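In full, the data:

***
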Amino acid sequence: MDFFAQQWASYRAVVDHDLMEHQAVAAATAAALESWLAAREDGAPAARMVDLGCGDLALLAPLLRHLPLGSYTGLDLTAQVLPLAQQALGDVPYPCQWIEGDLLRWAHEAASHDDGPIDIFHSAFAIHHLSDSAKHTLLESLRNRIAPGGLFICVDVFREAGESRDAYVQRYLQRIATSWPQLSPEQREHVSQHLAAYDNPAERSWIEASAEAAGWHWRWAWSGAHRAEAMALLTPA
């Protein structure tokens, strides 16, 4: 099994066993999107959606197939997942685009092109890989691209108020070691190594303030049971 297959198998095991509450996340995302779409004015153009870090769309695809979108763009840094996402989504009555790329670079480059505003941004468990300064840059870039009245659904892991990154990492590693018996030792090691090396979740009060400084209104819409996973809804201030 190659490196991607090994890592992806570990990721899929986390999702399939609902160890990060992906089922609750999917339900909260569906409720947010359906509520936002229902509140739009009659005759509004079909919404354009960009998914930053789309992954394989295993959980989101059933929802997307029934949404009245005008277009969908799935972007991910890992090229191998894009065919999986395309296959999961299947045939839909709106155009789709699949892009291999870095979400921060995409947001920066897209902001410099006048190809129209985006109605819906969605990102799940991707932004925590950025530094805090890069997170703020992303928030600014996306704010420049959002349509009036648009919606940004941000699902991610976050640090508690006053919690350091090191304290967060140790807390999460302990959670994996003691509460994820469904994973093999090798899979737990894959997840733990990735977390320790790459995860940089924002502290909750900091990300709220950063979003507000970038021109967003931030509202927490769902929080998981482990003081880490959460979903926020951002709208243009």
